[in-house]
Amino acid sequence: MQAMTTLRRRIPALAAFLLLLLTAAAATLPLLTPDPRPASAAEEDFSAARAIGRLDHIAKVPHPTGSPAQEDVRKYLVRELRALGLEPEVLTRVAVRPADDAPAGVGTVSDVHATMPGERSTGRVLLVAHYDSVPTGPGAADNGANVAAILEIARALKAGPQLRNNVEFLFTDGEEHGLLGAQAYVDASPGAGRTAAPERTVVINLEARGVSGPAVMFQTAGTGLTPAVREAGAFTTSLADEVYGLLPHDTDLTVFDEVGMRGLNFAFVQGAAHYHTAHDDIERLDPGSVQDMGDSVLGAVRQLAGDDLERSGSDATYFSLFGTVVSYPAWLVLPLAALAATAAVLLLWAGRRAGLGTRGAARAAATFPLTLLGAAALGLAVWWVLAWLRPDFVLANGAIHHLGRYAVGEALLLAVLLAAWYRWARRTASPLEVAVAVLCWFALLAVVCAVLLPGAAYLFTWPALTGLAAVAGILRFTGRSSPWRSVAAAVAAAPAVALVLPVALLLLPTLGLSAVAVPLVLGAFLGGTLLCVVEPLPRCRVATAVMVTAAVSGVVTLGVGAVLDGYSPDEPEAVSLGYVLESDTGKASWVSLGDASDPTVGRFLGDEPVRYDDRVPPLAGVALPNGEAKGARLDLPRAEDVSVTEDDGVRTVRLRVKVPAGVHSLAVYADTADHDVLGGSAEGAELPGGRNHTMGTWGWGFTYAAPPADGLDIVVRARGEGPLPLRVVTSEAGLPDGVGAPTPEADQTWAGWPSVAGQTFVVRTFEH
Q1: Count of alpha carbons within 13 angstroms of residue 462, beta-carbon side
Q2: Cα angle 129-133-138, degrees, rounded to a multiple of 5
Q3: How far apart are CA 738 and CA 742, in angstroms?
């Protein structure tokens, strides 16, 4: 009889646990990629097979800006657009992207643009993807897959009825060198492609920061785009928009946003260990990711192409929920958060008559932040230990191949931390009071986020509102001894599982192991709402044994993973080694971002890292492991047609710099120790003066992507005494022949660009 009574008391807990499992499955299902459609799919559908079939022409080899391989891609794009009945144009222009605290980015870029006219256009939908790759990789995912996806989208649109609005296709150049192609496009005159006012243009930008994973709509620029987001069906959250705005990252959409165009940013982000490396190739690209991206963008385009683009709605909070997109106006964010906070206060006041102990809830609430701090400390500590054990993880910046095993280990340790807090809180609080304590923190964070990060507030607002309502119902309709009271938090946790779990899983590969503390803190919030599932508690000894087992399992998982985590041709190790020739002194050096203990590159490096702030300005800012290298016979940059004039104390230096074939970028710096740079120009494009490089004496500079073969015209105006020193640094992919340079093994790849890995730098100084 006692066993039957115990079973009956546990049935509510088992039912709640099943509910939470089903909720978790339904919430994370949208993070799975769909099966790719074959080439035989319907003409109006997007087919990943048809898109990937184009990649041999787009991303077979590295094709950085200005390279012959990129010219081949450009010609292919023009041919394919013409085959679709469009009239493409190539827009070539010198673009300048100045920065306040970095050398300006400059380059001659060639964008490809075409228009599909609408029937009664109210504006235009502009699809954008950059078609250049990094110099050290073929860029199958970043961004060849998205270039191919736009061609397939254009084909699918042509197969259907004519759309209301113009749909334009823009393949930008020079994105990897600082968004130069997008800048060139917005700088161009209306006759060169800007056919609609910025406020009536909606940009859809396609990007990738990995080789797999679902399509994510991670940024909105402007307002009134929620219907298109909903029609896209991609996983989305306005939290991503808030986080992205805090990070020092940009895409082409940044440039369009600056001139008042609205837009959406799509990307897939898993498999980031291959990002910007030679292994971002067709074989490693996930066809399911291409299908998800194509379906999502095609859905958004069709929605926008039928809208009145002269109208725009209000700002909105939006998030994916069970495969659909929920949204509401931004003006509701703060009132809803305030309602959650008010509900928490009212529940604490009114719940006393139903047996809710405010003292126990307050004690639990006062100590719950310790679990959040513990989660953050756990993430930081584990990364510190792993970075010490595995310096190769640091070189990859936490973007490792087997992230899941470390996430499992840390999740086990987090569960032990939460269980320890829960057992302590249960000494003076009932399960229901512990649940209320956690929900009060959700309500408080809802208000804080509503003020500081409005797009993130929903993560806390809705779990607080629904959870507090569930607790109120439990208090109102059950007796004090009811077993349902012990699982009230579990029932109330369903909204937290639905909203927080997929975001935490998405942040994990996006941020990598080095920033795992962020999803762990979200995991602590989520775990706090689930703790009552363990009720009724087992005996103390059993609970302790379970916790010890979980802790040991977590540590073993992390330790064994770190010791045995190896590499293969499919999952290569990132290595770093560059070559620097300082032609002024004849000194040649090996430099690295890695560790001298690495068996491949360590034999080239000495013991003491060196800062190159004054010697090689592009490498400034960090002490680099280095070693003496054999001098290579390399062609040097040279100055021609030099002229110097002075007028009213201003020295104007004009010269034409020629660089060897194969150089992908040229950096020019002026010595500001004895001169103030007033300004200058490159290929006729004006450059602002002032100090824009804070490391060393070379305080002003710019970087030119793909310098012309016949030379780069440079003008620098400065005020000061004596000749003006100019330091020129060329960058070329690959290491020189004849100096004993290593070749990465089959299970290795040069670390992601931009870095010193697999690159040659030649330095030369001119004084005029």
Answers
A1: 19
A2: 120
A3: 11
Task: Using the structure block, give the residue that is written with the tokens 């990129």.
Answer: 70
Burial of residue 444 (number of CB atoms within 10 Å: 0-12, 13-18, 19+): middle
pLDDT of residue 4: 46
Q: Which helix (H) or strand (E) holds 546?
A: helix 540-564
Compute the Cα dihedral for 761, 762, 767, 768 and give only its sign: negative
Q: Return all residues near 441 (Cβ < 8 A) that are at least 6 apart.
A: 365, 368, 369, 525, 528
Tokens of 262: 């609205």
Q: Which residues contact 249 (CB under 8 A, 6 or more apart)?
A: none
Closest CA to 175 of 207, 141, 151: 207
**How would you write 135-147 as a 3-class SS string?**
CCCCCHHHHHHHH
* Cβ pair 592, 629 in contact under 8 A: no
* Identity of the residue numbered 538: P
Rounded to whole angstroms, the Cα distance separating 580 from 627 reads 10
Strand ranges inside 567-683, DSSP E: 573-575, 578-582, 587-591, 610-611, 623-624, 626-628, 638-647, 650-658, 663-670, 675-682
What one-character DSSP code corresponds to residue 270?
Answer: B
* pLDDT tens, residue by residue, 575-623: 999 999 999 999 999 999 987 778 888 899 987 899 999 999 999 888 9
| Rounded Cα gap, residues 729 and 673, in angstroms | 19
HEC assignment per residue over 739-750: CCCCCCCCCEEE
Task: Give the type of residue at 92.
Answer: T
List all residues 6 or more positions away from 507 whose beta carbon is below 8 Å from its beta carbon. 518, 519, 522
Contacts of 758 (CB under 8 A, 6+ apart): 136, 577, 578, 733, 734, 735, 744, 750, 751
Q: Name the helix (H) or strand (E) containing 265.
A: strand 262-268
Pick from 181, 154, 161: nearest CA to 85:
154
> Which tokens is 361 given?
């809830």
Extract the tokens encoding 382. Answer: 């584990």
pTM above threshold 0.90? yes
Closest CA to 152 of 81, 82, 104, 211: 81
Q: Distance between CA 204 and CA 231 in Å, rounded?
A: 13
Check if the beta carbon of residue 193 is closer than 8 Å to that of residue 113: yes
**Cα atoms found within 13 Å of the Cα of residue 186, Cβ hemisphere only:** 22
Look up residue 203 and give its two tokens: 């940009």
Cis ω for the linkage preceding 143 (within 30 of 0): yes
Ordered DSSP codes for 194-262: --S-GGGEEEEEEEESSSBS--EEEEEESSS-HHHHHHH--EEBHHHHHHHHHSS---HHHHHHHTT-E
**Collapsing DSSP states into helix, strand and coil, what is residue 69?**
helix
Classify 169 as helix, strand or coil. Answer: strand
Q: What is the largest CA-CA distance in the chain?
A: 105
128 φ/ψ angles, rounded to the nearest 5 degrees: -130, 135
Q: What is the mean pLDDT of each run of 10 residues along the chain (768 residues)?
A: 51 74 90 95 96 96 95 97 96 90 92 95 95 96 97 96 96 96 86 64 96 95 90 93 79 94 95 93 96 97 92 81 91 95 91 79 92 95 92 86 92 94 88 88 95 93 91 74 60 86 92 91 90 63 84 92 90 94 94 84 88 92 92 92 89 94 94 92 93 90 93 94 93 93 91 90 94
Helix, strand, coil percentages for the chain (3-state, nearest 5): 45, 20, 30
In order, the DSSP letters of 627-640 are: EE-PPP-----EEE
H/E run at residue 130: strand 124-130
